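Lab notes, practical 5.
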Amino acid sequence: MTQTDAKSVAGSSTVLRRRTNPITQFGSNIFNGFIHLIDLLVGPVQDRIGYRRMAYFFVLPNMLIFGVFILLPMVLNFYYAFTGGTNLFPQDRPFVALDNFEQLFDCENFFEPNTCREDNFPRAAVNTALFVVTQVGLMILLALITSLALNRKIRGRAFFRSIFFYPVLLSPVVVALIWKWILQQDGLLNSLIVTLGGVRQPFLLNRDWARFWVVIISVWSYMGFYTLILLAGLQAIPVELYEAASIDGASGWRTFWSITLPLLMPTMMVVLVLSLIRAVQVFDVVFAFTGGGPGTATLYMVQYIYDTGFADNTKEYGLAAAASVVLAVVLMAFTLFQLRLGRTSSLA
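Output from the prediction step:
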């Protein structure tokens, strides 16, 4: 027997042993049984409706879930916005036309909530606007800087990428409770300040401090997601452009402004729209962290809707629904404006 024949026989015996491995055989039987069961369930449907229509069959469960849990609540919310009373069921609610919207905007001066009939609505609207401007601006800036740093060839790059993305994996309530434990009056940060000879700070009792920390916590918990998107955009830029710029003697800043930023702008627009939508809808982190306080310093639109419709003693479902419609319209208009701006800049 030649050496080649010996290797062939040895390889065949190895394959045979693998095939007769009981664990592998058991897994193969389970897989084949599962495929056979699927075929028994789906086969008659395919015979009845045809091969081409099977795509609709597989999409149907997702569409049912979307219709029941998203589309139907949206329609009901829009209907509730034009009804009044405290009854929950639609048939028990009288039609009041635009009364709920008039109550929301019944103000002598919208920026002086005490002059408004529904004073918490303008407070929540102004707080949300300030939060969106500061949080989205800081988020995009830090995410851009972080993505640029992680795109460089540095030691431990994979480790640092995972570290920055880790907060995204945490539950918003867990994030809020961790930071609340750190920043409360007897928390970790105040204990450290006192140990160093300082004075305890009212991080959760002072209006300005509370607003500051809400922005910081929100940025910390979501920045990794947008950093990952920007990092993907940076890696899609052709390396040849940077090599050509280096040959031409372009500086780092010149390369960034002339190559990186223009080619990254479509990705930046996606990040801007996504972060804007999330910032306007902020609720869970703030609700678990400050509960909207102190006072109404961190009361934002979604929490106002929640309090008005569900948490207050008098549950005004129509008023809460009207506020959510206003929020949806403003958010949709702003998003369409951003998309139109991005399309115009890309064509230019």
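Observations recorded by the TA: The two ends are 74 Å apart (CA to CA). Residues 90-347 form a domain with the MetI-like fold fold (CATH 1.10.3720.10).
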